[in-house]
Amino acid sequence: MRALGILDKMSTIYGDPVQYSLKLGDDVVSMNDLLGKNISLRFTGNIYCGVCGKKTRKSFGEGLCYNCFANSPENAECILRPELCLAHEHKGRDVEWEIKHHLQPHYVYLALVNETKVGVTRGTQIPTRWIDQGANQAIILAETPYRQLAGQIEVSLKEYLTDKTHWSKMLRNDYNTEIDLVEVKDRIESMLPEELQQYISPNDEIVEMHYPVIEYPKKVTSLGLDTQKEINSKLIGIRAQYLILEGGNVINIRKHSGYEVELIAE
Known about the structure:
By secondary structure, the chain is of the alpha+beta class.
């Protein structure tokens, strides 16, 4: 199998295990089918912006040229800090884009990755968001009519819960198996400011994620195409947006969005 194209995040379909695919040019590669096979990932040296499509010497913010990084709504401050979103006031870098993406139902969730973390996502990104973070389990905490309110809930809980993922622990499947997300949800509901408690979701369903991994490594080392133009190894697992290779080496596909690569599997 040989495919040439520009990297973007892997597409996922929820299942047991999660199904991963990677679009390269006109080809859509089933990554699950490559498990246990030797793969080669070769960087051509070309990088293209994921928003405007222009060739760029360097990728900013996961696949953007500098101009789009500085000005496009895809990289606005409220992407990382939802509490700053002003879509409900019809404001933002691109009002039409903000209304389409952020003036819609958003969810605050609890995800079990290493410990319990809190996060925000659009309803259309469930369970994709949880898969992309490599969560073992997730539960919906609250539902809000727009992004800023979800961000306010998230901020109010950062004193008690992390909003970060320890990527190396996640790739080793190192997590606290004693955590019960329903119990955590019940405990922190009362910690929310009273005006935000109305958005608590009655949905206590725990969603479990299982990933296509032959064997989890005991130690992991992150590889990058900027310093290593060609990577050759056996694929032993996929989790979040990482390929897990033999020997504990891993590569973050999403981080290399915009990179033109040739993928060969045998």
